């Protein structure tokens, strides 16, 4: 059996701790980028990569709506989040990530960060995408929102919300197929 020196143990501990703390941060900061059109099995894999876990192991591809809770991961979180998948013909037609913050200032900061990162990924907000979504009913409590073209037949939107039942969410990020 090999014995490590004290300095090697400290260095190894620091590397492991940095990896554990870091695993929650990067995926939580970025916008939701999972494409619509995936099967449930493919969606589960994509959501696991950003630390969301399936809620009901008995759910099948015949369900119309499914909730994925944030997996238990180490690190500091300032709010709660969960993803809701809406299926049509066994494929994802709409994805929603809800985020709940007790502090309205944190919610505003998060909204601004998502707009900044979504703009970097998809280009500036798109008036045509906004018009497409504006034709639908906006989420309850919408204070302001921005829409982006996220593909030929996909629109992404970020909403800043006044928390209202049943979700009591502060932020909604949505990816919708608009075929």
Structural domain count? 1
Biggest sheet record: 7 strands, antiparallel
**Percent range of helical residues:** 25-40%
Report how far the terminal alpha carbons are from each other: 62 Å
Query: What is the overall shape?
Result: globular
Give the neighbour order of strands across the main sheet: 1-2-3-4-7-6-5
Along the chain, the helix and strand elements come as HHEEEEHHEEE
Percent of residues in beta strands: 25-35%
Structural class: alpha+beta
Count of helix runs: 4
Provide the gyration radius in Å. Answer: 19 Å
Q: Which regions have little confidence, pLDDT < 50, spanning 5+ residues? A: 1-26
Structure summary, number of beta strands: 7
Q: Give the rounded overall mean pLDDT.
A: 82
Describe the structure.
The protein is an alpha+beta fold. The protein has one domain (6-177). The chain is 34% helix and 30% strand. It has helices spanning 6-29, 40-49, 104-122, 127-134; strands spanning 52-54, 65-70, 79-88, 91-101, 142-149, 154-161, 171-177. It has a seven-stranded antiparallel beta sheet with strand order 1-2-3-4-7-6-5, with helices on both faces. The chain is globular and about 35 Å long. The N and C termini lie far apart (62 Å). The model is unreliable at 1-26 (pLDDT under 50).
């Amino acid at each position: 059996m090999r014995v490590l020196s004290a300095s090697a143990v400290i260095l190894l501990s620091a590397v492991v701790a940095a990896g554990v703390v870091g695993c929650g941060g990067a995926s939580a900061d970025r916008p939701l980028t999972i494409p619509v059109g995936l099967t449930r099995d493919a969606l589960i894999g994509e959501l696991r990569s950003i630390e969301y876990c399936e809620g009901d192991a008995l759910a099948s591809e015949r369900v119309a709506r499914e909730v994925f809770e944030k997996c238990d991961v180490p690190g500091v979180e300032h709010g709660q989040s969960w993803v809701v998948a809406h299926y049509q013909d066994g494929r994802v037609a709409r994805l929603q990530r809800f985020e709940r913050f007790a502090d309205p200032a944190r919610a505003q900061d998060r909204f601004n960060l998502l707009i900044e990162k979504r703009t970097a990924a998809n280009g500036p907000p798109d008036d045509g995408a906004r018009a497409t979504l504006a034709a639908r009913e906006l989420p309850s409590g919408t204070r302001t929102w921005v829409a982006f073209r996220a593909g030929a037949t996909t629109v992404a939107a970020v909403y800043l919300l006044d928390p209202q039942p049943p979700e009591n969410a502060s932020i909604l990020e949505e990816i919708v197929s608009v075929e």
